[in-house]
């Protein structure tokens, strides 16, 4: 996980489709981070604020989480739609 010198670091979030058509998001980089809901838009909307809350509490300083564009999105090719990377850094 992030370093003590407050250097920005990447958190990879993985996504799984639920049997009811909903979405589950979790991260192996951040044990305990799990979001799951029948409404996939609700899950997506909750990722950044949830990461910020958990990381800020763990690290003891305000953290900002921002979705990083993937190479697939930059070049408009879908390579791996089941993961997204977020940058965690000191909140301004």
CATH architectural grouping: 2-Layer Sandwich
| CATH fold call | Double Stranded RNA Binding Domain
What is the overall number of helices? 2
Structural class, please?
A: alpha+beta
In the CATH hierarchy, what is the class? Alpha Beta
Task: Please indicate the count of domains.
Answer: 1
For the sheet with most strands, the description reads: 5 strands, antiparallel
Count of extended strands: 5
Offer a few descriptive terms.
Double Stranded RNA Binding Domain, 5 strands, 2 helices, 5-stranded antiparallel β-sheet, 92 residues, alpha+beta
Description:
By secondary structure, the chain is α+β, with helices and mostly antiparallel strands. It has helices at residues 40-59, 71-74; strands at 9-17, 23-26, 34-37, 63-67, 83-90. Strands 3-2-1-5-4 form a five-stranded antiparallel beta sheet, with helices on one face.
Overview in brief:
The chain is α+β, with helices and mostly antiparallel strands.
Itemize the secondary structure elements and their pairings:
Elements: E1 9-17, E2 23-26, E3 34-37, H1 40-59, E4 63-67, H2 71-74, E5 83-90
Antiparallel strand pairs: 1-2, 1-5, 2-3, 4-5
